[in-house]
Amino acid sequence: MPVGNKMFQGDFTEVSEMSNQSIINKRRMINGYDDGLLQASPLKHPWARDIFKGMQKNNWVAEEISFQKDKEQWENNDLTEQEKTCFLRALAFASNLDGLLVNSLSEVIKPHITSPETVLAVARQIYEECLHVDSYSCMVEAVGLEPEEVYGLYRKDKNLFYKNKRVLESMYQINRSDFSTKTPEGAKEFLEACSTNLIFEGVFFFSAFLVFYNFGRHNKMPGSKEMIQFINRDEDLHVRLFVNIINTIKDEQPEVWTPEVQAKIRQNIIDAVEMEIEWGQSCIGEGILGITPVMLKEYIEFIGDMRLESIGLGKTFNAQNPFPWLDEFTQNNMIETNFFEGTVREYQSGSLEW
Ligand SMILES: [Fe+2]
Ligand SMILES: [Fe+2]
Questions:
Q1: What residues have a C-beta under 5 A from ligand 2, the ion?
Q2: Within a domain: residue 336?
């Protein structure tokens, strides 16, 4: 019978000399000793458990959100045609991207991670991406949007088709049978795939988040705004998780963090910022409810700088955040937000109420 892990392909005498401590000492983010049994104690990467615990506090489901006002506003044409188009485009790409993340995290990223505590956090992240996918569909149904206009938009909109195509290609390039992180080239490619994930979650959602928050600021589509607050709070921890994964691989295998790899990842982030600006500007057109194309550009550049700095690559754009009002929606990683009628809050886990 084939056994998945090398450790169990040999016989008992090979492993009987090993101690738990010796296994932990060989533990790495990738290419570590891994028996496949997720022994998550003692911890080699304690930050991963902290993130996992943070995720456990962020429980929510789409049914907690009322989309009644959104439905009324949509049906009563409280939004202009331009606003409706902008809303649908922002929603289309955000929902496409969350769907893609469920698959890419499971198929491309998680199989190569050899840190049990990090696997737990990534597995929880996959669940949260499923939750996001589900929340979009609940919202589409509750507001009465036409699914074809959301999920089918990429089949009508050339920009969105090519954006999705590029995003998929960039993530799936390591998803091939001969790929291994064991070679220096493979480890470099995996590092790049992790930075691609950081781009997805840390750059590509941000014009959509901005659009939804801006509607909320003008008392439009309040349920959608609240749902995005929940999603954004989750995404903040996903970004933190991938920043830590990247920085840990850099520490554990400094030989793969070459000037060439740094230049490549820096360029990927710069290209992503440009793509996101182009996409965001195509959503808002000449401007919408106080957001101008110039302000959107500055905002996405500001986000790009944060991502570059987080993995030690230094700022490129030196842009300022032109939307200080966003703090009211995000409140330092969204942990305690009660804005308008919003009910995003920190959940206490561990209580059982039947
Ligand atoms: Fe997500
Ligand atoms: Fe995410």
A1: 201, 235, 238
A2: no
**Who's near 147: CB < 8 A, 6+ residues apart?**
140
Q: Judge whether 136 counts as a catalytic residue.
A: yes
Whether residue 42 is preceded by a cis peptide bond, meaning omega within 30 degrees of 0, is yes
Q: Find the catalytic residue in 33, 127, 136, 162.
A: 136
pLDDT for 192-201, tens place per residue? 999 999 999 9
Q: What digits encode the pLDDT tens for the residues 162-199? A: 888 888 888 898 999 899 999 999 999 999 999 999 99
Nearest to 40 by CA among 110, 118, 117, 112: 117
Is 344 within a domain? no
Distance 235 CA to ligand 2 centre (A): 5
Relative to the alpha carbon of 202, which ligand is closest?
2
In-domain check, residue 318:
yes
Here the CATH number for the domain that contains residue 258 is: 1.10.620.20
Question: Does some domain include residue 108?
Answer: yes
Q: How many structural domains are present in the chain?
A: 1
